[in-house]
Design a protein that fits this description.
Elements: H1 2-17, H2 30-43, E1 46-47, E2 58-59, E3 66-72, E4 78-82, E5 90-97, E6 102-110, H3 112-115, E7 126-130, H4 131-139
Parallel strand pairs: 3-5
Antiparallel strand pairs: 1-2, 2-3, 4-7, 5-6
Length: 156
Amino acid sequence: MRPLTDARIAVRDYHRRKGLNLEFSFDGNLVGDLGEACAVEEYGMKLVKARSNAGFDGYTPDGKRTIQVKAKGPSTKNIAFSYSEVHADHLLVLELDFDRGTGRAVYNCPEHYVRTFLPGEPWKGQKQVPLSRLRQAAARIRDDERLPMVGTIKEC
């Protein structure tokens, strides 16, 4: 157990030195925090100050658009969405390969394309969108609709 907790502390402290207030806790937020850290490193996302902000996690480097980050491991087949009246301008879904220590964007597009797969009215709980649908939507997106990378996903 100690090597795992030491690793978590090292990752947390590494990102804190870079100004990111992420906990990397083992309570279900670990993958999400890793995804947000990758979005900061690789896409220049600026995290929101309030960590409980509904609807989005940060802003594009110019501060003009909001970004929602979803992260997943290699075995996850669906991405979960909770209802929010606030929708992000952009959705970034990152697939993290924990064994290799790498990641890649499965979906890097405006969020409104994915919203068509979700109910329009308020709902309770979470709704799942299959990754296959995200990939299909992403294949139809123009390059100028994607967030440009500023890093190379080596240290996220």
